[in-house]
Amino acid sequence: MSKVSAIICITLIASMAIQPSEAGVGHWIAGAALGVTAIAFAPAALGFGALGIASGSTAAGMMSASAIASGGGVAAGGVVATMQSIGVAGASYGAYAAAAAAGGAAVDYLAK
């Protein structure tokens, strides 16, 4: 099974796991798609890439602020380190499932 197929399956399962009302199913599916798209493309759009953080990007500013705040280094497991990890290796299936569920819940909530 390809990664895209697995992500689609996870998105559908995560969206249905919370059992949205019949009227809100469209909201959940749209939100799940939005969540999965965001986690797939947001790191690159911010400047977190496979070759490192792009100079002059939002990611570079985040890294600078994080390094200053922590006294010279970027904390392992922090937002910047996590986003860079996603930029290099991609997100885990669990992260895609969480993004699908959160996106579905958010769109359903905002649509009410």
Structural descriptors:
112 residues; mainly alpha; 2 strands; 71% helix
Task: Break the fold down into its secondary structure elements and pairings.
Elements: H1 3-17, H2 25-46, E1 48-49, E2 52-53, H3 58-69, H4 79-89, H5 93-111
Antiparallel strand pairs: 1-2
Report on this structure.
This protein has 112 residues and is mainly alpha-helical. It has five helices and two strands. A two-stranded antiparallel ribbon has the order 1-2. The relative contact order is 0.21. The model has no long low-confidence stretch (mean pLDDT 80).
Summary, kept brief:
The chain is mainly alpha-helical.
Indicate the overall shape.
elongated
**What is the count of β-strands?**
2
Q: Secondary-structure element order, as H and E? A: HHEEHHH
Poorly predicted runs are none
Average pLDDT figure? 80
The gyration radius over C-alpha positions equals: 16 Å
Q: Major sheet: size, sense and barrel closure?
A: 2 strands, antiparallel
Residue share in β-strands: under 5%
Work out the helix count: 5
The neighbouring-strand order within the major sheet is: 1-2
Q: Structural class of the helix and strand makeup?
A: mainly alpha
Give the termini separation.
Answer: 36 Å
The share of residues in helices is over 70%
